[in-house]
Every structure is written in structure tokens, then in C-alpha cells.
Amino acid sequence: MSGRVLVVDDEVEMQRALRAGLQYHDFDVRAVGTGEEAIRESVAWRPDVILLDLGLPGMDGFTTLRALRPATRAAVIVVSVMPGEKDKVRALDAGADDYVVKPFGTEELVARIRAVLRRQADVTTGEPVVRTGDLEIDLARRHVSVHGDTVRLTPTEYELLRFLALHAGKPVSHTTLLRQVWGEYAVGDKYNTRYVVAQIRKKLGDDPANPKYIVNEPGVGYRLEA
Amino acid sequence: MIRRLAPYAVAIAAAAAITAVIAVVAPAATPSALSSLYLLPVLWLAARWGRGPAITGSVVAFLLYDFFFVPPVGTFTVRGPAEVLELAVLLAVALVTSQLAASQRRAQATAEALARDSRALYDLATSMLRADEVTNALALVGDSARRSPSVERFAVIGDAGQLAGSAVTADEVKQAGWSRDHTQAVGIAIKDGTVVPMKTHGPASSVAYLPLKNGVVVLELKSDHLDAAEMRMLAALIGLVDLLLDRRRATVEAERARGLEASDRLKAAILSSLSHELKSPIAALRAGLTALTAPQAGLRDEQRELLGDLDRQATRLDRMVGDLLALSRLEAGAEMEREPHSVAEVLGGSLRAMRSLLKGHEVTVRIPDDLPPVEVDEMQLGRVFSNLLENAVDWAPTDGAIEVGAVLIDDHVEAWVENDGPPIAPADLGRIFDTFWTRRSSGTGLGLAIVKRVVDAHGGVIRAENRRRGPRFIFTLPLAHVAVSR
Q: What digits encode the pLDDT tens for the residues B265-302?
């Protein structure tokens, strides 16, 4: 078994399709239809990943997400039909690890689930060096290199890259980046993060139109490829 | 009759009274000196009642004086120039005074009439302003006009029938329509601030039509009684009707605009909720179809192929629903959240989202490293690139090349998406961005319409050209004015 996945969706057809699709990919799957059941099941069954639909009847997705976060260490992937960018940011800020927009194909979903599971494993091992492709970020030594060549970053640039590296694979919102890099009071100017990312990309030799390392999440923020 | 004769009786009585007074005091003075006493009643009569009674008084006074005091007493003989002069003086005083008094009275009457008219217009204007609806104000003006003694009927006809005033026949409404369409008055005109009846050709009718900018006044006058003041008042009222009709038109237009705006918003809201409802079953479809294409599902290759086809159709359906919603939001005037963005980065997002669709195509990106940022809505520009890329994939050969680029030209950025597919027919270059216009039976005609609307909303322009390699879509984007703090 590659992991336990809890599907939270009020549509039976969706539950059945996801259960079948994920089981073919060797996941152990359970499906529930409400937020209350999701919380109960997350404690009782201890899933590794929770697929949480935001459009639940009764206790809504955001409330469920906030209740789940202290109850479980499972990665939460938020699923939603036509989410606005603000909804995505809100979900990330409330503790979601990723989001997937409905409708999606099974392959895409499986890729996302594997990515969050891999991240969980990395965090558990406490590896101080984050690698993605040729990029290596040594968090203990504050050292960044591409192809083994040292890259010199300004303190601001390093701080931003370090935060993305700590959450490698996960989208980080502009506001979170701003707060992490410039402090609590530097909220509001998204272009600052864009400018700094552009500088980092230049030094890493990353093409903004086809990035290998730092990926733009339109309307949301940035993600370091894991 | 009695009322009209009374002043003459008073004139005779007054002359007689003065004669009695002179008779009483005559022994103390010469009667000729006392004759000037007769001026008093004549003056009074002239001032009070005008020429007729004053002349009557003068003549009676002269005759009485002649009879009683001028020798030979007891006869009406007139002898000598002194007596003729006396009569002449009395008559002259009567005439001059009555003339003066009459013009005085006329001036006063005019002043009173003017005051009355102004008062009436003022009252009308006040109640008009208080009226919530223009139609109510029009009714007030209509009532006011109909109170005029010169007016038989007064009605206001608008574009869609009668708005206020007296009852009119269907024929009269038709005639009013003719008058409006030809801006030709029938039977009356307004000249120098007053209503002037006019002779017209054709069958004689007492009903007149006066076209205004936004309606027609239908007026029937009582032909035997046309008072000048009433006609001026009527002209003023027609002026008010004109103003009110203007106001009504403005109100109607504003309401229509509000209605359209509200219906656009409603349409967008309905489509938004409808899209949500449509996408949920598509989500279940895609999840189910793609689950079965996994090798572990144990289906044969041709079965998996079929499922793949079905999934592509479901994906297309999903995109169409998305396009429909996007277009309706744009048409309802969706706000652009414009911020400084790098063209390359936004393009990167679109390329990434379309990875699977672009598979098999060679995509070249030509954007200079130092291209300045543009002031755009990131999601909307992403949509522009996605739709143009999708269009390119549809038209480029299976392993065809697609080129995307951007350059700085003067004070804006020009971006393009080009494919090496067949050229666009020159006749189609202009209408290719029209909503629902498509070159293929399978297209929705929405993708490029959305692109154009987004570019428009950013103050840019878009055009399609046939290049040597194939069709190219070129659009402009505004530069961002950024002060970066580091």
C-alpha cells in the first residue's frame, strides 16, 4: 500500500470514482460525505492524505479544514469546483497542503498525492539539504548551488528561497512570503516578492516562461518544485 | 345691462348734485366762478369708469349749468364764446382724464395678469418638481392648460401613446405621430413666446398639433375666445411640457441602462451557478473515466482508448462551460485586478497549465530578459495566452511549431502567438474575434472573443495577421509604472 487516503465528498459518484481510481494506484481509500465524519475518521483511521471538497453540505469545507488541522498530521489537499484565487489562498493559509480544481483526471490527482506524501517523508527525515533538479539548498550551511556551482544570493533572496525550500512542493501565498521575508508589517506589495523571485531566477538560470525550480502559482504565490 | 348703465346714472346724479350745491351757494359768489366745481365729478367719473360716463357727466353738467345759471336762465341757449369754451374745457377734462385713467387701469390689469400668470407658473413648477414621476408632472401641466378659458382640449402624446391631458381619439394620436415624424406643426405655432393659431391646408379641423423634441402637444382652442394673455400662458405651458418630456426621456434611458446592467449581472450570476452545477457532473465523469484507464483496471487497449476519447470530450465540455462563464463575466464588466507582472512569468503559468494539450508541439518563447513589467490582471492575461495557445494547437499541424513572444515598442509591450497552420482567409481576419464566430464546426467561437475582450479591458488592441509561416495573433499590453523598494 502506498498510503491511506480519506476522500471527503458529498457526491456518491465522486466517492466511488475516486475510490476505484486511487485503489488501482495502490492506495488504501475510505470515503465520507460530511465534515463531521471526516474529523472522526481522521482521528480513528489516521489517513496520510485527506482529499477535502470545499463544497460540503452542513459544516463547510473551510470549517472542516480548520478543525482537521489540530486533529491530524495528514496532508490535506483541498478539492473545489471553480475556486477563486482568494479561496485557494484562504485554504493554504488555513493549513491546506495543496489544492486541486475539479474536474481533474486520476493521473493528476495521484501525482499531487504522491508529492505531498514525499514531502511528509522529507520532513520526517529532517534532511537539512533540499534538492530539486540541479538546485541544492543546504539549510544548515545557508549555501545554495546549481550544478555544484555556488550561487550568491542577497539576504532577502536567500530568506525567500529558504522559506520556499522549507515548504518544497507546496504553494506558498504572496502574503505568507511577504510576512516571512519582510516581517509582519510589510504586507501589501506583491510586486516585491515577484521582483525578488525574478532576481533569484536570474541567478539560478531559471527561465520564468518555463521554470525548473520556482514555479508561479497564478493568482496565489510561488512553489519550489520538489 | 344694469351694471353697465349704472355709471351713467351716477354721472347724471353727480352733475345734478353739483348743480344743487352751486344753487345753494350761488348768492354768495358768481356762478361762473363756481362752474369749475363741475370738474370734480367729471375727474372722478373719468378715473373711476372711463370715457363714457365722464363725457355723459360733462354734457349733463354743461346743460344743467346753462339751464339754471346762464342768463337767460331757464333756457338751453348757448351764447358767446365763453360758454362754448366752458363746455369745451369740461369735455377736454373728461376725455384726457378718462384716457389717463384708462391706460392706468390697463397697466394695472396687465400687471395683475402677469402676476397671476407668474404665480400660476410658479405653483405649477413647484408641484412639478415635487411630482415623483414625470408623468404626474405632465398631468399637472395638462390640468393647468385645460383650466384656461381659451382651451377646449390639451393633451400630450409621447412615443408610445398619450401621456397626459384630455381624451384624444386614435386618429388624433396617429395625426400626432405624423406631426412628430415630420416635425411639422399643424394648426398652431409658437412665435415670440405666444401661441399663434395658423391656417392649414386640407380639411379644416379645430385640433392643432405641435411637435416637440420628445413628443407632441395636441391642442383644441375655443376659436371664439382667444385671449392674448391666455395664449402666452399656453406657450409657457407648452415650454414646460417640452422640458418635462426631455426629463422623461432621460429618466427612461437611465432606467433602461440600469435594467440592462442589472440583467447583465443577473446573467453572470445565473451562469456562475449554472457552471458550478455543470462542472460537478463533469468532475464525476472525468474521475470515473480516468480511473478506468489505469492499467490495473484490466481493460483492453481499445477500451482504454475509447475511455481516453470520452475523457477528452468531457474536458472539452468543461472548457466550454468555463469559456461561457468567463465571457459572460467579462460582458457584465468584470473588474480587472491590474498589477505589475512579468509577461514571461504569466506565460509560464499558461504553458504549464496546458502542458498535456501542448504535448507534441514545439513551443518557442521569444521574450527579452529585460522586458519591463506590464500592468495587467494576471489571471486574465493567463487566459489570453491559454486561449491563443489552444487556438494555435487547433490549427497547427500535429507536430507543428508554435511561437510566443513579446517586445517593447514605444510605451507598450506587443505580444504575439503564432502557429504554422494554414493562413486565415483575408475576409475572416476582421471577424475572427466576434462572439460565436468560428472557422470550424466544432469550435465554440468563444476563445478568441474572450481574448479580445480582455485585451480591450486593458486598453490594448488585438489583430490577426498571416505571416510567412502561418497566422499570428498580435496584441498590446500597457507598461507598469513601478517603483520597487528592495
A: 777 778 778 888 889 899 999 999 999 988 888 899 99
Cell numbers of A111, please? 501525482
Phi and psi angles of residue B73, each rounded to the nearest 5 degrees, phi first: -60, 140
d(CA B472, CA B461): 14
The dihedrals phi and psi of B124, each to the nearest 5 degrees, come to: -65, -45
Supply angle C-alpha B176, B179, B185, rounded to 5.
Answer: 115
Q: Do A191 and B373 touch (CB under 8 A)?
A: yes
Residue appearing with cell numbers 525574478: A198
Residues B257-262: contacts with CB under 8 Å, at least 24 apart: B261/B333
Amino acid at A214: I
- Beta carbons within 8 Å of B482's beta carbon, 6+ residues apart: A191, B340, B373
The reply to whether A105 touches chain B by the CB within 8 Å rule is yes
**Neighbour order of strands in the sheet with B215-221:** B161-165, B151-158, B215-221, B207-212
Distance from CA of B345 to the nearest CA of A (A): 5
ipTM above 0.95, yes or no: no
Helix (H) or strand (E) holding A86, with range, is: helix A85-93
Which residues pair with residue A139 across a beta bridge? none
Contact call for A81 and B291, based on CB within 8 A: no
In A171-225, beta strands by DSSP E: 172-173, 214-217, 221-224
CA distance B486 to B484: 6
* Partner B contacted by A190 (CB < 8 A): yes
Task: Select from A82, A107, A156 the Cβ nearest to the Cβ of B290.
Answer: A107
B170-196 per-position pLDDT tens digit = 888 888 888 888 888 888 888 887 888
